[in-house]
Structure formats: C-alpha cells, structure tokens
Amino acid sequence: MMSLNIMPNIVTFNVLVDAICKEGKVSEAQGVLKTMDKMGVEPDAVTYSSLMYGYSLRSEVFEARKLFDDMITKGCKPDVSYNILIKGYCKAKRIDEAKQLFNEMIHQGLSPDNVSYNTLIHGLCQLGRLKEAQDLFKNMHTNGILPDLFTYSILLDGLCKQGYLGKAFGLFRAMQSTYLKPDVVMYNILIDAMCKFGNLKDARKLFSELFFQGLLPNVQIYTTIINALCKEGLLDEALEAFRNMEEDGCHPDEFSYNVIIRGFLQHKDESTAAQLIGEMRDRGFVAEVGTATCGSR
C-alpha cells in the first residue's frame, strides 16, 4: 500500500489491529501501534479497545488496564472499552475488580448495557456467587435495562449448577410471563439439571412442553432424556425416544448411540445393544471400548 504512495489512515490501521488482536497476537499489534506513532497517526478508542480485547483474551488484564488508563489520559471516550475490560477481569476470575470497574463506569456517567450486566452476572455465577448475581439481575430492572434471553440463560445455568432447581424453575416461569419466550438452550439447561438431580418426572414434562411451544428438541436434549430413562431402567421408553429423535429430524450422533447402548448393556440387554452397535457402525460412528466389546461377540 505504502509502496504505491498510499498512506494508511486510522481506519486502515484499526482494521489491521483488530484482526491481529482477535487472534491473540497482541505483540504484533503493539508493533502496528509503533508504526502508527512513526507515521503520526494517533490511536483512537477503537484502536485501544481492540488491543484491550487481545490482552483480555490472554487474561493479561494488567496490560489491558494500562491501555485503558492510557486511553483515558489521551482523552478518548472509553464507552465500549469498559465492557471489554470487565469481561477480561471476569475471565481472569478477578470478579471484585470487575465489579469495581462496573461501578466506576456508572460514576463516570456511563450507563451499563445488557452486555455489561450479562458479563458481570456470568462472572459471578461462574464463581458460585449467586446472591450477588441475583441482586445485579434485580438492579437491571431498577435501572430500566430489560434482561434478554442470554441474561436469563446465564442465571438459570448458575442456579441449576448450584442445585437451586426450584428457584431456577421459578425464574423460567417468570420469564415466560414477559415479552420473552424461552428457547431450546434454556429448556436444555433445565432438563439437564432435573435429570442430573433425579427429577425425571418434571424433566419429561418440560420435554413435552417444548413441542407445545413450537420448539424442536436438539440432540443434546434428546440424549439427556434418553440417558435419564436408561438410568431408571425405562429402556422401552428410551428406545422410543431414540427413534422419535430421528423422526423429528434430529439425527443421533456418536454420543447419543453410546449413551443408549451403555444403558442397554447396564441392564443386560445385549441383543438390543448389539443391534444398535451395528447401526452406529453403519453410520460411521465409533463405539466406546466397553460397548464395542459387546458388538464383536
């Protein structure tokens, strides 16, 4: 470009820095920054944000914070950069610093958006700090920020992983009374948790509800239900669900086959297990070591 006597401008440099940083190659991006300096091109908020994102990907939040402070010193508006840095702190499990930055953002007269809230709620849930996550969720409503599907999914997942199924189910129903409608991901979170905690009855009700909501279960949901049915010894129902999966246009994968085959083997039905092993091999799937032994007899 420069060989043609065409000088790159800030937009050109920003595209380059962004592409490099998304690959986590921040040292190369810093080299571009030096070139900009030599050419008299001043980095702007976009440049700094891209670099901060690159450092955050590598959990190098100290370097990201230094860039953030440099950006402020040079008079650049930090709008999006706050969210990038908050995410960086959460990724590094430095949640208290993320909260401090969130509060600093408000103090500077900036309004946190869905991304700000979702990032911090996710970070708190990851560390099991559900009370704080729920308080932040309520704070969203207070400040007129409407939670989106991702917000609800994050909180649902956090509650389920800690075994608070009642609270999770209550949140799920509360969301259904809003303008939002649950998606397959949310059903998957709840059904998986209910199966893991032995509540197959309610898991099956939710599974049936999916169809009434005009949603189709994905392979993960089918496999979760099939696994739970197998553990309860309900092999006929497990096989029926397995066959229905394909009829509904959801093709079983290698994991699905191994789950149902393992279920039949654990309940001494080697004949059906061998039949399913033959099927999976015809489809090019590989049986687990324990299940493959049965199929070779």
UniProtKB/TrEMBL annotation:
NCBIfam families per the UniProt record, alphabetical: PPR (TIGR00756)
Keyword set, alphabetical order: Repeat
Family affiliation: Belongs to the PPR family. P subfamily.
Protein name: Pentacotripeptide-repeat region of PRORP domain-containing protein
KW Metal-binding (keyword) present: no
Pfam families: PPR_1, PPR_2
InterPro entries (alphabetical): PPR_rpt, TPR-like_helical_dom_sf
Keyword hit for Repeat: yes
Mapped PPR repeat ranges: 9-43, 44-74, 78-112, 113-147, 148-182, 183-217, 218-252, 253-287
Domain of life: Eukaryota
